[in-house]
Amino acid sequence: MNDSARRDHLVLTVWLATRLALVVTAFAVMQRTGASLDTVLSRWDVQHYLAIARNGYADPQNMAFFPGIPLLLRAAGAAGLSMTLSGALLSNLAALLAALALARLGGSLAGCAWLLAPMAVFTSVPYTEAIFCALAFWSWLLARRGRWPLSAGLAAAACCVRVSGLFLVAGLAVLALSGGEPSPAGAETAVREPSWRARGRNLCWALLAGLVVLGFVIYLHALTGSWQAWFGAQRAGWQRSFLPPWQGLQNTLFATHPQSWPNEPSRAWMFRFEIASVAIGYLTAIGCAIRRAWGQAVYVLVQVLALSCTTWFISVNRAVLLWFPLFVAIGSVASRRGGSMGLRGGRVVVIAAGVAAGLALLVWWASLFYAGHWAS
């Protein structure tokens, strides 16, 4: 078995293990609560996607969601399939594709770390994270290979799924202008482009992908007569508006007190994790800048700014899944070799503890979501 096959085999094994853990957790919640499989897989935002799939954007609040996932669910329904189960199957398959792309961007342990992320439950249900990550990670990988038209096509598809596609376009634009980026150990070597004319051409390909978002804005304007329909839906449904990050932090700190959620104390923990996720995002962007991976730095930074310069920190935990440079860094640290026998043994212990902690958090997080509790 060659190195590439071993890399993919390890990722596939971890994918199967995490999917098994999620399935067992889902059935345990069903046994405990009496809920059906369809119910545990269709919590929270899934209801919005199902509503759009069935009725379009009849509810103005649903305009906060991009049409990619609802269109896929609608196609499944038109074929006589369960929209919820079909969406869950697509998400799980997309999670495997995303992890395989990450293994090429940063080594097999990067893909494994992503699969073991505590919030991986969102890659097992009809949410946007898995499908977006599959499209975005492969788009980035193709750009590193110098295959910009294909990269732009996948980026355009990612823009259909969630607004984060704009941040992907921004990162790809910087990658195009910089002519390449460093390649960590275990990653495919990025193509370097010395020609400024070629860089300009690649930039045009990257920017073309962003036209999808403009098309969605025009569509919402045709429905509502407002160019602010998406922002209005964000404000109406999730009280999101632009604020300095310190004010958003202050509001989020209030939400970390258990007294704020007397009937659901786990929400306080979720908001504590939201604050930690924002900090991780800024540190990841700084780390990318130190490595001079300018495109990756911009890709992460604009996301963290958008998520922290708002009324409160919400859904940042899920957004961590989109930050592939974080998992590349984790994989790079975990795969280091050399040093004394004691150092190597200590590294193995730390990795084993990290895997165990990741699995425990993954199961805890999944049990909250499947039971209908707030999970970011």
From TrEMBL:
A family per Pfam: Mannosyl_trans2
Transmembrane segments: 12-30, 75-102, 114-141, 202-222, 269-290, 297-314, 320-336, 348-371
Superkingdom assignment: Bacteria
Gene Ontology cellular-component annotations: mannosyltransferase complex; membrane
GO biological process, alphabetically ordered: GPI anchor biosynthetic process
InterPro entries: PIG-V/Gpi18 (IPR007315)
Listed GO MF terms: alpha-1,6-mannosyltransferase activity; GPI mannosyltransferase activity
Membrane topology reported for the UniProt record: Multi-pass membrane protein
UniProt keywords, alphabetically: Endoplasmic reticulum, Glycosyltransferase, GPI-anchor biosynthesis, Membrane, Transferase, Transmembrane, Transmembrane helix
UniProt pathway annotation: Glycolipid biosynthesis; glycosylphosphatidylinositol-anchor biosynthesis
Protein name: Mannosyltransferase (PIG-V)
Organism: Propionibacterium cyclohexanicum
